[in-house]
Amino acid sequence: MAKNIEKYLLSLLVVVGGVVYFLFGYLYNRSDVLALFGCYTILFIVSYFLISKYKENTKLLVALGIIFRLVFLFAIPNLSQDFYRFIWDGKLLLEGFNVYLFTPASFIDAGQYPIAQAQVLYDGMGPLSAGNHTNYPPINQLCFLVASWFFCDSILGSVVVMRLMVILADMGIVWFGIKLLKELNIATYRMFYYFLNPFIIIELTGNLHFEAVMLFFLVLSLYLIQKNRWQLAACMLAFSVSIKLLPLIFLPLFYKKLGLKNWVLFCVIVLGVVVVTFAPFFSMEFVHHYTDTVALWFRKFEFNASVYYILRSIGYAFSGYNEIAIIGKVLSVSVLLFVLVSATLKRNVRTIGLMHTMLFVMAFYFFTTTTVHPWYLATPLVLSVFTNYKFTVVWSFTIFLSYFSYSTTIYQENTWLLLVEYSAVYAVFFYEVYRENVNNKKTYLTS
Predict the structure, then answer these.
(1) Mean pLDDT, range 99-128, rounded to an integer
(2) d(CA 400, CA 290)
(3) pTM strictly above 0.90
(4) How far, in Å, are 44, 176, 255, 304 from residue 192 at the CA level?
């Protein structure tokens, strides 16, 4: 009788989860924020029960994570426009163009249509993306190229290929993540705080963000570091950087783990491989466009920030206008200093200590940066799996409140919702830091 009830409960949870993911993928768009947030809450409850009840059944949880992702397979992303730019870049590469030298608007404004479905892709990506040069590194561009090569004349076909890449990357993260958890003597079920998290399934698989591919190479690199294969780990970290530039921030943190000589060689390999991936696109015009595009994240773009918004308000009070150019530079320098100081910590000698430091670096970066799109949170979330910190899980829920900015035709952030989002995150974060400090003191006194 008890087994029948358990099977019924499992079937119910799977059906509810599958149906709600289907609604996310095929029915709602980002203006349906109340319905979306309600469904998002249901998915978190479903995931919590699945992980709690079946945490010892790794194969079942992996299978459910794959099934939930496959629900999105033929869905056009409805919460993000970025995939239109991905396909544009892929098709442009197929035509032999250097994608870093041209903006979509430069073609359309001149009445030129260099690729199939150019107008549809241009309209879909929106004016912000269309008016700027691409910022996606070369291996990320290779993914776009492959998707466009398989389905040159089909947007849906390209979407399916990219989605399969993201799903395979997530499966790789679970595979090497569980191996790494075993190496560190940490419970393997923690991996499902990532793999079964609705935030990850919706933002990466559903909305086609390539953080999954970046994180696959990052987790693989950390696993290889643990196995003392640091040369190969350096190559994997370089591939991660060539998907998204963000992992470059971790480079100084490997100093204590590897020692000075090996760390220098590690950095040379990482930077050398990254340079090689960029080499086919190199020109002084490329350098100018790419550095300018990356700099926009620190001097112009702003979304869902916390500390930056406080400083911006102070700047308004004193000068009467937005001081983002100055504040962005100050915050960037503060992040750099935080990374350099963190690189000297003794705990970085052990892999588990290194990953704690990486998580804190990511937290500091996203607490202080000017722009925090939801999918950015995937990196600190996967790192938290290897620690006792859960503030990233809380954040992966509250960050969905940022979608309320799109509830009207006029984009506008809600200060009260920002307060709710970050109050919960900071409260859990500081509590967990306090708890760890107390536990460390107890361990020291009893040892």
Answers:
(1) 95
(2) 30
(3) yes
(4) 12, 13, 30, 26
